[in-house]
Fold:
Amino acid sequence: MISIEFIVGSLEVGGAERHLSQVLPILKSAGFLIKVHVLSDKAPLKPIFDKAGIPVSLGANLDHIPPILRRPIRLVLSLAKLIRSFLKNRNAIRHAFLPEAYLLTAIAARLTFFSGPLVMSRRSLNDYQKRRPFLGKLERLMHRFTTISLGNSRAVVQQLYDEGFEPGKVGLIYNGIDLLPFQNLPQKQELRKNLSLDQDTLIFIIVANLIPYKGHIDLLNAIGAVRTQLPKSWKLLCVGRDSGILSKLKSQAQALGIADHVEFFGNRLDTPQLLAAADIGILCSHEEGFSNAILEAMAAGLPMVVTNVGGNAEAVEDMHTGLVVLPKDPASLAEGLLSLALAPELRIRFGNAGKERVHQHFTVTQCAKKYAEFYVALVEEQFK
Structure:
């Protein structure tokens, strides 16, 4: 059996964490020995791993520590924890997700003279390195000790090559989603009735946490610019937790005169139903790796309007499953939204094509199979 220890900063409800919660149970059922090391104690997704019989080791609870000291203490404790895991099991593949986990894992590997496979998964563009240049340099230094790095889009893979990874040391595995929540959904009319949404309203939807780089301000400005050209009855649904900008977004909507048309739903457990009740899906981010939110909207049959960053244009085929517009450009976004708003037949065609594309290329089963093949090949290469 192949033993793999995954390292991740938390098990919060984020893209990488949800990805692991879907893929790892499939890998375990396929016979892989799986263990997860979480650097913090934040783990609302842990019950999924418990149900699958996957051991999860959590970091210490530091809530009693003054906030200014929590991060440095957590980093030290996490490094010590990883060193112990390397010393305890020298044979497992180590696979780190996201920059902080990768840095600590790579350092622990060097300190323990670990010579086994060390894998890093990059899930986003490297814009974060510009905000933290020292950590970016340290991360690039660790690349030389990494067996292979995985990206989830061609855009991410190219950046890994640009950072110095040699040919043959970078791989691509696209995200995949679980299609079960999108099967056997009620008809749109019934969904709208259940959600208290008017039947004749044109509904835009964006599923993205309220973070500046997700582009919600651009979206409000874009819709505000074309509001008089939209059908009389329209609504924008914003689904995702507030990371500190909700009041700013509400003020902007009020200033644009569209506040009555915009609803902020926060986190929801019925996202598939909300998506299937809508007409047009949106992701207008400024930076992105490869978004599951796009795949889920396509699985619900929505035509998409997305910005041309990261893997967005790899998921959405322009003029086939949706429209790809310029990032940080409300005018370009407005043009795309208006063109779909006024073309119901085009929305249906794009939506059907998008659903078919997800079924063909982006299921979690296909994704897990790619990982399984990757780990088997990695072990075979090691023992050549």
The chain has 16 helices and 13 strands.
